Amino acid sequence: MTPLSAGTTNLPKNATSTRSNILAAAVQTLQRGGIEGFTLEAVARRAGVVKGLILYHYASRGRLLRAAASQIAASRTAAIKTRAGQCSGSGSLLDVTQKS
């Protein structure tokens, strides 16, 4: 899943891919701009869609923000679990997270 760059007119063909594209753009926007930079306009620009389409899929900025934050948290949790699984058992989880 690769988000469309700003200004791209090649929009996804179905609702599932559109929603995924919007979420990917929201995650990138949140990671790069933080809460202050997380606007529907910024996400729409990054996703290459109109603001109304975002609201159709997520109903509000808050819902989109929660979905993006949840995806970031899930990704980080998976990365920590992967690293923890690579431990020989003698290191602590703190050691694993500091190597990330």
Describe the structure.
By secondary structure, this protein is mainly alpha-helical. The chain has one domain: Arc Repressor Mutant, subunit A. Helix content is 71%, strand content 0%. The chain has five helices and no strands. It has helices at 15-37, 40-47, 51-58, 61-85, 93-99. Helix 1 crosses helix 4 (61-85). The protein is elongated and about 45 Å long. The two termini are 24 Å apart. Mean pLDDT is 83; it is low at 1-8.
Using brief descriptors, characterize the structure shown.
mainly alpha; disordered N terminus; single chain; Arc Repressor Mutant, subunit A; 100 residues
Give me a quick take on this structure.
The chain is mainly alpha-helical.
Total separate domains = 1
Give me the CATH fold name: Arc Repressor Mutant, subunit A
Task: Please identify, by name, the CATH architecture.
Answer: Orthogonal Bundle
Number of strands: 0
Number of helices: 5
Order of helices and strands: HHHHH
- Unreliable spans are 1-8
Major sheet characteristics: none
Mean pLDDT: 83
Find the structural class using helix and strand composition: mainly alpha
Q: For the CA atoms, what is the radius of gyration?
A: 16 Å
Query: CATH class, please?
Result: Mainly Alpha
Shape: elongated
End-to-end separation in angstroms reads: 24 Å
Beta content comes to: under 5%
Helix percentage range:
over 70%
CATH superfamily: Homeodomain-like
